[in-house]
């Protein structure tokens, strides 16, 4: 028994020491963006084979070169960077910028005030975060660490408060309500009149709630009926099964986001061919469901949003200027709207596993590197984001 | 009895006493060594940043709510109870507080009282309910947890989903000096009540053996009610500070609090079954260990997922080495 205890303690110590040593190791250098479409996928420490990145170069960025001797910056990234291909892609996409921008990233899968404080003590020069609050900005202000926010919506009142803090650099996000409206229109156009809505537990994520609210508002406005709603934490499969059993007139389901349970429930409940599906995000099954006409809409394409937020942060770190001139308004990026198999194929090829922007394209957005660049151009780049736009920038 | 036989029995007694003393020493010293080891290791890993003045202030901030709730929970765990509803109760208290202020224009002090009352009601139902209905505390606390979660969601939805806390009014809750004073006062008062008064001693006696405690004239209901009252007050106070710390309230507010408390108590060597070995210092050591660990590993740049793995491994090791299995053995051999 004594020997077991000692062995147990020794093993634990070895593990703790090994992991602490890992923490001191420099961040692995990420490879530069691939030079061509045939280049291997941008790898990451996750080791996941997540496809081939498409290299992009717009006409205007041709000939752009990074200044030599860039200062070294350490950036803390708080949010979610594991658990889904989008999150892993976010991590990969940021790492694709490390070499050219001379930056290193520290990723934390959490975003509490404690995490922000710890990051500041760890000596990060700036923070990228998927959320924000006034109390967090009080912390960043105390340590004078700038913060840029991605993929999260805020009310006008919140933004007005945030913009009083000089360390708040702005928000780059998609507007979830717009996706909800597009989903409602796609479903109505596909002939759906009695639709059920499956969402996340209300009040956990305002942007997810907004998807459902705007969907229902628009669908009702068009003349359709919402036959049922269920907001049980991520139990979409159970919700859909219940809808199918209780509402035989149901001809469509709107799911606030996708997981495999949605597709399974559609298959097991015999809804394929009998009801339509509209949602957010993209998974492997979307191709099949878009092909067989069951899925009529999905909003996706957030892969590049974190890159745009990085541009906002780096711009400030480099010369102390704000890329987003009016920080009390969000910079809204367009969703990639997928309505058919052709869209899905293009999305799969050009965006799904793509960095979306090359380091040069992001560098072109930095006013310190490119004094002619303006906020209006930045805003336009976010609004114009679409499959066609990414295709036009793609090499090969 | 022959002298030789007496000597043998005395030898055996001595051996047993020594074994018990050694075990006690391990249980007392190991968590403390764990804390020291954690601090030393992480100080090296963070090149001294861990113990910088600024980070020590952060440590107080980061362990504040866990420490506050932890010392309250010590009373409940000491008599052998438990409460899984602390997180949702804490979230509900935040909604009640902010709702009273934003919806009904009540003064802040009324909100504080309402928040504390909310938590007292929740913890009282768990304590008194489990005792009076002769149910396991965890069953009752799961029911209360479900009720609090539902009310939290409903309250949250009725106020528009995400509630932004106005920092110009509630910012004083983030004052480090105020937090330090409250924390120190709480620790001193709790230590006194737990170690020096009848309530603390009776709670530990009930945790050690409820039948014996009852036969000694102790009224368990009184002890249980008072223990849960203390816990409720602590959770309510913690809810006020947590609300200002996060700057917003969602239906997930307070989530995971009960598990953080359990982990901290186990890491500090607090006997989960209660009894005489329960000490307030175990809670403090546990809370500090978990806070230093999370804080230091993040500063050192360790991936978040590994932080959870390390916490889990330490949890198992310390519990395996310090957990009192005496009662278990008695059950097995009976």
- What does the largest sheet of chain B look like? 2 strands, antiparallel
* The CATH top-level class label of the largest domain in chain A: Alpha Beta
Greatest interface and its residue counts?
Answer: A-B, 46 and 50 residues
Instruction: Write the CATH fold name of the largest domain in chain A.
Output: Rossmann fold
**Class derived from helix and strand content of chain A:** alpha/beta
| CATH architecture designation of the largest domain in chain A | 3-Layer(aba) Sandwich
Class based on secondary structure composition and strand pairing of chain B:
mainly alpha
Shape of chain A: globular
Rg estimate of chain A, integer Å: 22 Å
CA-based shape of chain B: globular
CATH topology of chain B, anyone?
ABC transporter involved in vitamin B12 uptake, BtuC
Oligomer: heterodimer
- Give the amount of beta strand of chain A, in percent: 5-15%
CATH architecture of chain B: Orthogonal Bundle
Mean pLDDT of chain B: 88
């Amino acid at each position: 028994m004594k020997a077991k205890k000692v062995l147990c303690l020794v093993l634990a110590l070895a593990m703790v020491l090994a992991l602490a040593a890992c923490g001191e190791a420099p961040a692995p250098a990420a490879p530069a963006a691939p030079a061509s479409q045939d280049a291997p996928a941008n790898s990451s420490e996750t080791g996941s084979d997540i496809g081939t990145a498409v290299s992009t170069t717009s006409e205007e960025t041709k000939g752009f070169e990074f200044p030599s001797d860039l200062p070294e910056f350490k950036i803390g990234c708080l949010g979610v960077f594991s658990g889904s291909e989008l999150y892993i892609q976010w991590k990969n996409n940021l790492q694709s910028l490390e070499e050219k921008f001379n930056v290193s990233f520290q990723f934390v899968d959490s975003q509490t005030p404690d995490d922000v404080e710890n990051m500041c003590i760890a000596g990060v020069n700036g923070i990228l975060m998927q959320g924000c609050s006034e109390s967090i900005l009080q912390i960043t202000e105390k340590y004078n660490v700038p913060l840029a926010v991605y993929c999260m919506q805020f009310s006008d009142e919140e933004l007005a408060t945030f913009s009083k803090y000089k360390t708040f650099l702005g928000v780059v996000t998609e507007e979830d309500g717009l996706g909800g409206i597009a989903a409602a229109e796609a479903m109505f156009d596909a002939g759906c009149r009695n639709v059920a809505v499956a969402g996340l537990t209300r009040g956990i994520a305002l942007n997810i709630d907004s998807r459902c609210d705007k969907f229902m508002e628009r669908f009702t406005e068009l003349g359709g009926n919402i036959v049922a709603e269920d907001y049980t934490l991520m139990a979409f499969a159970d919700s859909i099964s219940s809808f199918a059993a209780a509402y035989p007139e149901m001809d469509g389901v709107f799911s606030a986001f996708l997981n495999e349970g949605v597709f399974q429930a559609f298959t097991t409940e015999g809804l394929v061919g009998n009801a339509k599906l509209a949602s957010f995000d993209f998974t492997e099954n979307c191709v099949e469901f878009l092909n067989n006409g069951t899925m009529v809409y999905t909003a996706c394409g957030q892969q590049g949003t974190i890159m745009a937020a990085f541009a906002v942060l780096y711009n400030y770190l480099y010369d102390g200027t704000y890329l987003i001139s009016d920080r009390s308004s969000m910079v809204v990026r367009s969703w990639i709207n997928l309505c058919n198999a052709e869209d899905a194929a293009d999305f799969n090829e050009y965006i799904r596993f793509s960095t979306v922007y090359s380091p040069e394209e992001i560098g072109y957005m930095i006013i310190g590197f490119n004094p002619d660049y303006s906020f209006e151009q930045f805003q336009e780049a976010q609004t114009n984001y679409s499959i066609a736009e990414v295709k036009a920038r793609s090499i090969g | 009895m022959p002298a030789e036989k007496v000597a043998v029995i005395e030898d055996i007694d001595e051996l047993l006493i020594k074994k018990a003393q050694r075990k006690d020493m391990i249980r007392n010293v190991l968590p403390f060594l764990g804390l020291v080891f954690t601090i030393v290791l992480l100080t090296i890993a963070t090149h001294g940043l861990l113990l910088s003045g600024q980070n020590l202030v952060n440590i107080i901030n980061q362990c504040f709510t866990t420490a506050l709730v932890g010392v309250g929970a010590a009373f409940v765990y000491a008599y052998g109870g438990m409460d899984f509803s602390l997180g949702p109760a804490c979230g509900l208290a935040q909604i009640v507080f902010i709702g009273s202020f934003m919806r009904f224009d009540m003064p802040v002090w009324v909100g504080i009282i309402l928040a504390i009352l909310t938590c007292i009601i929740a913890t009282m139902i768990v304590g008194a309910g489990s005792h009076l209905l002769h149910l396991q505390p965890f069953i009752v606390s799961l029911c209360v947890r479900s009720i609090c979660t539902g009310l939290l969601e409903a309250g949250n939805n009725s106020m528009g989903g995400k509630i932004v806390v106005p920092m110009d009014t509630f910012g004083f809750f983030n004052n480090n000096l105020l937090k330090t004073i409250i924390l120190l006062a709480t620790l001193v008062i709790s230590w006194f009540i737990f170690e020096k008064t009848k309530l603390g001693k009776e709670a530990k006696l009930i945790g050690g053996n409820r039948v014996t405690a009852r036969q000694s004239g102790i009224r368990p209901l009184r002890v249980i009610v008072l223990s849960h009252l203390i816990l409720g007050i602590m959770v309510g106070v913690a809810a006020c500070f947590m609300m200002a710390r996060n700057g917003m309230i969602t239906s997930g507010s307070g989530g995971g609090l009960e598990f953080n408390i359990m982990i901290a108590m186990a890491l500090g060597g607090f006997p989960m079954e209660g009894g005489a070995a329960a000490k307030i210092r175990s809670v403090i050591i546990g809370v500090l260990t978990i806070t230093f660990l999370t804080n230091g590993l993040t500063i050192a740049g360790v991936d978040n997922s590994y932080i959870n793995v390390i916490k889990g491994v330490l949890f198992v090791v310390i519990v395996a080495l310090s957990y009192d299995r005496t009662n278990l053995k008695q059950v097995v051999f009976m």
